[in-house]
Structures are given as C-alpha cells and as structure tokens.
Design goal:
mainly alpha, globular
C-alpha cells in the first residue's frame, strides 16, 4: 500500500492502478498462460540473480548522472541490491494483483522523487531485460519454440512493469510539465 504522504501526491486514484494494469494486459494480449510461463522462469533466473544485480549496479557507477542519486555509499547500494532482487523475483513469482501493481507504481514514484531521470530507469530496465534473456536462453531446458514463447511472455511482463513505472513518473511530474495557460 502507498503511505499517506505518497497517497496525497498521487494524481491518479490508487484504485485506478489495477484497472490501468488490467487494461494494459488486455492491450498487450497478456494471458494466464503468459503469467505461468513467466513464473516458470524463476528457477532459471534465481541462480544468476547476484550476477545480474552486480552488473546492474556496476553499470550505474559508470554513469555520473545515474550515480548521483546514490548518496549513501556502499550501505545504500547493498540495500538497493536487496530491493532489486525482490523486484526481479516478484516479476517471476508474484500474483499479478493490486499489491503487485502498487509496488511497481512505487518504484516509479521513488525514482521520480529522488530525481533519477526516467532515461536511466528505462535504460536500466533494458539492461536487466538483456541479462534476463541471456540467462534464460543459456539455461533453457526445452525446445527453441518453447523458449521463444517464454521470452515473449517475459518481454510482455517487463513491458508492463516499465509502463507502470513510466505512468508513475508521469503522474509525479504532471504539474511540472503542464504548460502555463495564456492569460
């Protein structure tokens, strides 16, 4: 759930989150079979999670405009690595319900609140996507056709997450971006 302070800043009614999520799933053609395929990838991804997360944060350190929001040193990075691990494993093991959507929404809000340019959030998710696809493809136990179908489902899940996160950014910055009305 959103805390009271965050709820007061939300311009989209929190009850709309899930409706928007469901509309997005429908738009993309997301099905229960897609959800099951993504969940089935958890056992492949989990052993590679430390490497994926280390890569994620190593890349941030190479980009001063991304790195500047990390102000708490190694302790903060360690905490963020734990949060990222939870985010990734929820992608593969969660019920895609109201709470899931609210947690994804909070990711976007938090990144907007700390001043991380959406450019880096999108790029970081793209890097994570590439890493996830690489480890799934490398360790895939099934047929190439099954792999293609599973990766399509994974890509949809990541696209849905990215859209929720972007929606949150837009909601957070709506007043900033609104042009002044002529008098």
């Amino acid at each position: 759930m959103l805390d009271q302070e965050s709820q007061s800043k939300v311009r989209i009614d929190p009850h709309e989150f899930y409706g928007r999520f469901r509309e997005l799933q429908k738009y993309l053609g997301w099905t229960d079979a897609d959800a099951q395929r993504v969940r089935s990838l958890a056992d492949i991804v989990e052993p590679h999670l430390p490497m994926l997360i280390d890569d994620f944060y190593a890349q941030i350190q190479k980009h001063p405009n991304a790195q500047k929001v990390i102000t708490g040193g190694k302790e903060q990075v360690d905490r963020l690595k734990g949060t990222l691990a939870i985010w990734v494993m929820e992608l593969f093991g969660s019920a895609y319900d109201h709470q899931y959507v609210q947690r994804r929404w909070q990711v976007g809000r938090k990144h907007a609140e700390i001043g991380l340019d959406q450019f880096y959030t999108n790029a970081a998710l793209g890097r994570m996507r590439k890493g996830l696809i690489d480890v799934v493809a490398r360790d895939w136990p099934g047929t190439p056709a099954e792999l293609a179908t599973s990766l399509s489902s994974l890509n949809m899940a990541l696209d849905i997450d990215l859209t929720i996160i972007q929606d949150s950014y837009i909601d957070e910055h709506r007043d900033i971006r609104r042009p002044a009305r002529p008098r």
